[in-house]
Amino acid sequence: MKRISLLGATGSIGVQTLDIIGANRDRFDLVACSAGRNIERVREIVRQFEPEIVSVIEKEQSEQLKEEFPNVSFVYGDEGLIEVAANSGADMLLNAVIGSVGLQPTLRAIEQEIPIAIANKETLVAAGHIVMREAKRRNVPILPVDSEHSALFQALNGEKRSAVSKLILTASGGSFRHLTREELQGVTVKEALAHPNWSMGNKLTIDSATMMNKGLEVIEAHHLFDMPFDQIECVLHKESIIHSVVEFEDTSMIAQMGSPDMRVPIQYALTYPDRIPMQRPKQLRLGELGQLHFAPMDYERFRALQLAFDAGRAGGTLPTVMNAANEQAVQLFMEEKIPFLQIDELVERTMDAHSNIQNPDLETILQIDRQTRTDVLNHVQ
Ligand code: MN
After folding, report:
1. CA of 322 to the centre of ligand 1 (A)
2. Are 35 and 15 a contacting pair, CB within 8 Å?
3. Average pLDDT of each block of 10 consecutive residues along the chain (381 residues)?
């Protein structure tokens, strides 16, 4: 029985993770989780999975739930996330929170030598050099959950890293892939949230529309697979069937493919190195599929992806700044306070104004993350 703690249980990845745990109760036990604002969903999770520790956002919510479920330990806030991540006695942490708020819980879990399945890409973008260094030092596995990185991880299975020439991340192009930059003026939040292939949380769907999601994933791949940015590429692939590709020095390419179903990479991270059958499988029928399409990435159209490569290559605190500025800008767009095209403009302006610091420690990263959000808000108001 593998004891799982889950950060972000009420989000899109969290819900699909619980689906897998629920379908394999003989294999997995949910011992702790954190939730967002959906308290009714928390009640359902507690009844169904009986976790020992549950973290919510507000103190009042935790007190109210404690009265309803006296046998469960309810915690809250940033400390609550750390409690779930590091103090639940889990055999694995699946980190599916959104944003750099997942950074400290991840580091605390690494200190406790808990293997981590990571869906929280912002953590690796904001402080990948620290997370990977600490994980390596304590020999803690960091397993990818993101579909592209799971694909790369699977394609690299049993291969010598020195034989890899390129990691190629596929990108669907998001909800606005048919529009030019001109045509992006005036697109609405609702339009941005309608992704053609994947069902994901709001932040991730907006990041897909700006292509910042692919940018975050490039930096994530750099850290997870210790690969220089010159050996990471992106290609447009509108069907989201090939989830990513590894090219080797003999020009062979190994790709991983399947229906766009996040449960597959989630389950693989939970069962690795084993594979188990999928409940309600969405099997791919190649004959019916017929064709797959690929096109070169357009770095001018998708400005945010170019910014991410720039930030990744510069290193230091610049990826932290890029990520924090993006998180804040996306929130402003969702609140309809800025137009869509201002998201990457704000990110670029904030990056340009930043004096980069190389090899930042955790304190510096956390401070710059906070400062950047304030700077972005000040630009707008
Ligand atoms: Mn992805």
Report:
1. 18
2. no
3. 97 97 98 95 98 97 97 97 97 95 97 98 95 98 98 97 97 92 91 81 91 97 98 97 98 98 98 97 95 96 97 98 97 95 97 97 96 95 79
Domains of the chain: 2-144 (3.40.50.720), 160-261+285-306 (no CATH), 315-381 (1.10.1740.10)
pTM of the model: 0.96
53 in Cβ contact with 34 (< 8 Å):
no
Span from the CA of 174 to the centroid of ligand 1 (angstroms): 11
Q: How far is the CA of 326 from the centre of ligand 1 (A)?
A: 17
Q: Taking Cα atoms as reference points, which of 11, 30, 10 lies closest to residue 20?
A: 30
Q: Which residues pair with 67 in a beta bridge?
A: none
217: CA distance to ligand 1 center in Å?
7
Rounded distance from Cα 119 to ligand 1 centre (Å): 9
Please return the burial class of 36, using the count of CB atoms within 10 Å of its CB with bins 0-12, 13-18 and 19+: middle
- The Å distance, Cα 71 to ligand 1 centre, comes to 37
Q: Distance, CA 305 to ligand 1 centroid (Å)? A: 14
- Report the DSSP beta bridge partners of residue 248: 164
Q: How far does residue 61's CA lie from ligand 1's centre (Å)?
A: 32
Cβ distance 173 to 236 under 8 Å? yes
**Helix extents (H) in 281-317:** 286-289, 303-314
Integer angstrom CA distances of residue 195 from 108, 119, 173, 242: 34, 19, 9, 17
For residue 21, the tally of other CB atoms under 10 A from its CB is 24
β-strands 2-7, 92-95 pairing: parallel
**Ligand 1 centroid distance, CA of 1 (Å):** 28
